[in-house]
Amino acid sequence: MSSSGGSGCKVFRFQDLRAVPDPLLELQPACLQPSPAPVVVDNGSFQNRAGWACGGAEFERPLLQFKSVAARSRGAARSETQVGNDIPNLEPLRWLLKSQFDRNVVVNFEIQELMLDYIFVHLGIGTEGSVEHPLVLTEAPCNPLHCRQMMSELLFECYQIPQVAYGVDSLFSFYNSNIQRGLKLPHTGLVISSGYHCSHVLPFFNGRLDAFNCKRVNVGGSHTAAYMQRLLQLKYPAHQAAITPSRMEELLHHHCYMAVDYQQELEKWRSAEFYEEEVHRMQLPFSGKVAGVFASAEERQEKRVQQLRRLEELNNRHREERLQQDQERLDTLLAVQELLEEGAVEQFHRRLMELNMDSAEELQSYIHKLSLSVEQHRLARAEVC
Predict the structure, then answer these.
(1) Which pTM does this prediction carry?
(2) Rounded CA Rg of the chain
């Protein structure tokens, strides 16, 4: 994160990082021997993370990490769908983005299948028609039975998965944290899970989740980013287009923190010295002076003069084109009139029919009108010159 400024003044520029397509990984021998290693998928509503449950330092962290979104233009083929990190910039395609989630529950299994295809292909699983590895998959606390059934149907019938284990990511984290701290089984505690679309309060008693007393709050990270976006757009209305959801997520992830004691934090920020020392000032992309905002009276007058000049030139060009068309039409009618004067009556009547005229009097009337129009255009051009 780049920053600049003098002592006590922190100015940061938005990184606007673009996603880099994930490489196609090769399947390591450790994932096959002595038996196929389980694939672990953290199926989150904000991000998908996937890797292997096997020994080795290279497998301690997820090998894949990408946004849980897919984009496909209307009428495009399935093979043309972009998933996760294949979308370099989300903002231009935000209206096309689709997710497999409604809040934190999987309901769109067509998109879920695209996500699983992306994961298995990029992990290097190349077996035809099936995935011969067990799967550990996260799901929402108290996931509806219908959604669990649809997910199982997708995994067993589409991918021929041999075994599936479902779990809640926050409870996995709770178990791992207690093991690292050396706490004995069974564990008891209260888990606060803050997700992208909603948060959960999960009581855990004697190694089991007390599902009856679980609480769900429909506030998550996406609401925080949207609320911050609305506040900043109201405060800086001239920069509404530049205050995008992606930049708000960057602010949350890199420039915000969770207050342990909210009232104490408010007291700290009331201090001017603390504020100047800790505040982060964000610099939006700057492309020079905004047109029309700081223009002087002379510049505005000059702009109006230029607009009038361009309008006058456009009118003159249109008059010239009209004069040329009228002159060509007049020359054609005069040529037909000469046929009558020369005695070529049959040819004269034939030309009248081609011109949709019935008589010599009508021809003479058109010639008179066009002559006046041409003369007026020439006089107007002479006055301009």
Answers:
(1) 0.70
(2) 37
Cα–Cα nearest to 10, from 20, 18, 2: 2
Which alpha helices (DSSP H) does the chain contain, by range?
109-122, 145-153, 169-180, 221-235, 245-255, 262-269, 272-278, 297-341, 345-354, 360-384
Q: CA-CA distance, 93 to 91, in Å (whole number)?
A: 5
Residue 10: pLDDT band with limits 50, 70, 90: confident
Could you tell me if 82 and 71 are in contact, meaning their C-beta atoms sit under 8 angstroms apart?
yes
Examine the pLDDT at 229 and tell me if it is beyond 70: yes
Q: What is the CATH number of domain 3-167?
A: 3.30.420.40
* CA atoms of 57 and 334, how far apart (whole Å): 96
User: HSE of 315 in the Cβ direction (CA atoms, 13 Å)?
Assistant: 10
Tokens encoding 181: 């701290």
> DSSP character for 137?
E
Domain spans, the chain = 3-167, 221-283, 301-384
